[in-house]
Amino acid sequence: MSMTLKENALAIYNGQQPDFYGDLMNAVELIGDPILMGDMPPQDGLEHADSWGTVYVYKPGAPGPHPHVTPENAVIKDIENWESQLRVPSLDQYDWSMARAQAAAVDRNEKFVGFFCAGGLFERSHHLMGMENALVNYMEYPEEMAALLRVIADYKIKLIRLAAEQFHPDIIFYHDDWGSKQNVFLPPSVWRKIIKPLQKEIADTIHECGMIYMHHADCICEPIVTDMVEIGVDIWQGVIAQNDIVKIQRVTDGKLAMVGGIDGPKVDIANIAEEAIRSEVRRAIDTYCPGGRFYPSIPNGICFLEWNNSIVMDELTAYGRRYALEHPI
């Protein structure tokens, strides 16, 4: 009898024999909560402020909205006076009935119910003041940034508990990009001092509520992966191939399940040969699946070029099943 998507994902998560190796996200049904949906701007290319006051622009055809923070519209213009400039939105006025209905419609034997918890500590901080100012402030005003992040963390913890009460997700899909394709954004010592303790509180909250903590960061996180384990990250989703994934599997001693490994930008280009795309998918599976607890996928989810994406998915489906059959645990 073949496994359900959830059973197959759990087999990989638990280091057991799966039917196939593939993207964990196929087994997750993300629920549209009222906070996220209320903050989503229309795809009209115009400026719209979210509940925190951050201005976003969602251009037609773009994969998602992006913050458009300027010196004029930044919520926090002076980090030394951030308390007088920031208004933390209330979480008490939202109607969760649609989210509850969506979650109730999911067959939890077939799929996980996921809560997309966007705008983590680092991302929210630079969305409030702009990336350049945030990076400078982390270095020159660490106490003020730590106090600001304390407030943001309290909001996130309350939101996670609220989601747990309303529809009890199986997985919290927490989003916070901590780096670029080249390196982490902050010196690890700064990240460890300011972000790590608060992130552990968030992880502890997720686990206290009986949920899995899956952290999305499609970037370099290699310098802080052992810290991610210490925090309590269960799954790192978005692992780009620019990380030394085999080394990470070794230094984390199999304690960090990972999703990604296929170099999306390498294959999401025009005029690429079909075999080059299939070869990259096989490379990822052959290289990272032997380390265990690995879900091969495109870190950001899909190729944006439709034909390229269809080849990736076809090869992932076929070779991911073949690999599982030929390499039993």
TrEMBL record:
GO terms for molecular function: uroporphyrinogen decarboxylase activity. Coiled coil: none annotated. It comes from the Bacteria. Residues 118-287 form the Uroporphyrinogen decarboxylase (URO-D) domain. InterPro entries: Methanogen_methyltrans (IPR052024), UROD/MetE-like_sf (IPR038071), Uroporphyrinogen_deCOase (IPR000257). Pfam families: URO-D. GO terms for biological process: porphyrin-containing compound biosynthetic process. SUPFAM superfamilies: UROD/MetE-like. This is Uroporphyrinogen decarboxylase (URO-D). It comes from Lactonifactor longoviformis DSM 17459.
